[in-house]
Structures are given as structure tokens and as C-alpha cells.
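Shift notes (night). Ran SLC45 family MFS transporter while the centrifuge was going.
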Amino acid sequence: MSEKSSAGLPALSKSMIWMINFGFLGVQTAFTLQSSQMSRIFQTIGADPNNLGWFFILPPLAGLIVQPIVGYYSDRTWAPKLGGRRLPYLILGTLVAVIVMLLLPNSGSFGFGYGSLAALWFGAITVAFLDLSSNVAMQPFKMMVGDMVNDDQKSYAYGIQSFLSNTGAVLAAIFPFLLTWLGVANTAKKGVVPQSVVVSFYVGAALLIITSAFTVFRVKEYDPATYARYHGIEESDNTQGGNWFTLLKQAPKAFWTVTLVQFFCWFAFQYLWTYSAGAIAKNVWNTTNATSAAYQAAGNWYGVLAAVQSIAAVVCSYILAKVPNKYHKAGYATTLLLGALGFISVFFIHSQGALIISFVLVGIAWAGMNTYPLTIVTNALSGKHMGTYLGLFNGSICLPQIVASLASFALFPLLGSSQVNMFLLAGIVLACGALSVTTIKETFAE
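Came back to this:
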């Protein structure tokens, strides 16, 4: 660890870079179970499809609030007995997330009644807590790469993070389908979430504990003095704090141009998570009845398609990691355009198998969204307020999801109250994201 990069940080072993990121596998499994199954859970317990946007506002709202706070305070935290500055937040977030993962899929099993306000509120509150805790657990991984990995290794580190993220997504997506194949019930009485989904959340909770433990026990963060020395800053730079609005005003241009691209991307993907199960059920299984076996089969198939999306993202991420810096913008725009085509194709496809092609294209866009933004932004930042800036940058993910959910209350009825039509809109929005890549100007390490 004596070799230094131009940024002053030592080169890390590949095994240490893996350990820094390993817990992200469990966190992403939890996140994907939530995003891929939330629409199914809420419609199963009696939510009106026209009101799904309300439930999908909660996760990004939690991220918008929590991640800047985690970044701000973890910049100033030093708790060596708990691992350092970022790891204490990982421990807290993991513990809360595990508890909530045991509660959320049982929203319809506590006798509240189908479609009752109590059942929907219980589901909404548990989703809010799951996303709060997932955000607390997720942000430390992004920050530790910025804290500990030099510019020469950063693309590799974020590539590993993307690989683990998508692997977790694959596992989460196929759990219900696999459990059904193994004989676990995929249907239940009206208003009750099937055991295939419930057990999937239990397995995800166990995976979250195990993978996070690897990171907590194997990673030793830099103490404040060492961090300051490696980043070429004063030790007091992070302890002095900083007004969020002032920091945003001083943010590099790359921060804002990538934020513009992120707006279109995450707006589109919010509709993927909200309407996929219903759109697939309508186009392929010809049903809109969320309590039917056909609808539950569509929900399982969406899980498989989400796995296809993640596998495509893993392969594409490996390819993108080898693209020279000067072609980053071309690669970014191309992946988003292919994803837009995938979204639009869902509108026209009525074949279960053909949807695989659609979600391969969506996965390519997902790879671009997870490969480029953090690398571009962290390369443009100094070590000052690294956590706070990355927390604030999370607003480029959360705000578009909130806007998309709020807009859905007008757009959904305007587009014929059709979940399929929302995919057509999402594809157009993602294409706008591809065009906005031209506004980015990158800063590369010397």
C-alpha cells in the first residue's frame, strides 16, 4: 500500500476493493426486492393502480433527505470501535433494514382487511422505513470508494460495485420465481401476499446481514489525519462543516450536467418499477385483476425480466469499463438510447419471450447509469466534503423519481389509465436523457 497515485491515495489490493464494496450485494438485493415487488405487494393488498404513485414517492423522498444527512455527519464522524466514519452508518442501516424486510411482505397478514386504510398505511410506513434504512446502509459504500480509492483504480472500484449491485438485483429478481418452482405457494387468499414473495424477503434479509458483515469486519477506514494527508487537504476542512446551498453553488460543472442526465434517466426508471407488473399482466396475460393467478404469474415473470436486465447490465458494465475516457460520452448516450428503445418496445410486445429482448436493452441503459455518473462526479471533486457532496448528488436520483410519481397522477389518466402507455412515455423521456449527455464536460485524473 505504499504506491501512490497522482491524487496521493495509496493503491489498494483488489481484494480490499472487493471488501469495500461487498456489502453492496446485500443492500442492492434488499433494494431490488423492494422496487420489483412493491407494486405487486400493494396491488395484492388492495391499492388502486391509479394511486400507486403515492407509495412510490416514499423511497426517493427518504433518499433525498437521508443521504445528504448521512454524508454530512459521516464526514465528521470518527468512531474507531465501530469501524471509522462511514461503517457506523452501514451497521445502523443494516440492522433497521433487516427488521423492516421481515415486516413489509406481511402487510396483508395482520388482519387489517383487503384494501383497508390500515393495511395500506402499514405497507407505506414499512416501505418508508425500508428505504430510509437502505439509504443509510447504501451511501457508505459510495463514499468509501471516494475516500479510499485513488483515481487510477476508481473506475475498477465502481465497476466492482456495479457488478455486485447487479448480482444482488439478479438474486432478488429470481427469488420469487425460483421459490415457486421449488413448490412455495405463489398465490394466497385475497389481500395476502404469497409466500413466494414473503420468503424472498426473508432470504434477502439474511443475505444483507452476511454480506455487510464482510465489509464491516474486513475494512479499516482512514483516520481523519491520514485521510487529510492522502487527499491533500487540512484535517479541519471536513470538521468545519459547510452550508449545503453554498456547497451546491461551488459544485463543479460536471456535478450539474450529470444531474441533468440523471433527471431523465431516473424519471423513466421510476415508471419501470411502478408499472411493469401491471403492463406485463395486461399485454401478455390479458388481465388487470391483481388477485388473479395470471397476475401473480406476470409478477413472477417481471422478476425474471428484472434478472435479465441485471445480467445484461453486468455484461455491459464489463464492456463499458474498458472504453477509453475519450469515448465515455458516446458510450453513455448510446446505452441510454438503446434503453429508450427497450422501454418503447414493451408497448408493442404481447409475447412473454420477446420481452427478454426489451429488458436486455433496458439493462444496457442501467449499466450506463451505474458506470458513468459517480466516476465523472468524484473525479471532479476534491476530498473536501466528499460525503456531503455525494449525498447531495443523490438528489439527482431522488428528485426525478418524486417528480415522476407526482406527475403520474395527471399523466396516468391522461394516457388512458393504461400502465402499458406509461412505458411509451418513459422511453421518450429516456431518449431525452441520451441527448442531454452532450452537455457533460469531464474532468480526468492526470
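Residues 1-7 have pLDDT under 50 and may be disordered. DSSP finds 18 helices and no strands in the chain.
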